[in-house]
Predict the structure.
Amino acid sequence: MRLSPEATVEDAKRALAMFRNWRYELMGDEFDEGVISTGRSAKKRSAEQVTLEVMKQLTGGKRDVDVPAGDILNEMARQDYDEYEVEDALKQLSIRSQIYTPGAGRWRLVN
């Protein structure tokens, strides 16, 4: 590799070839490019979205309604998410201020 003040067409072709090598040969066909931009895998992003939907369903869309953690875990288990995935989703949603816990074992939607 070399550094120069100007990029040529050949430089662009070489850069694309290196990206393709990294993307397909090293990372595999199943690599989730969303991880690069969000820092979270598609499964984690999905768990967070489904958790929010479950909480909205369990509250009937009402605000200021406590949702027992057990109810969230049970509903998420029906949708093939394990306890660790749900706990992580709850933690991430809380960090992003989409939900909060008014007390042990209970969660609420922020809006």
About this structure: The first strand starts at residue 67 and ends at 68.
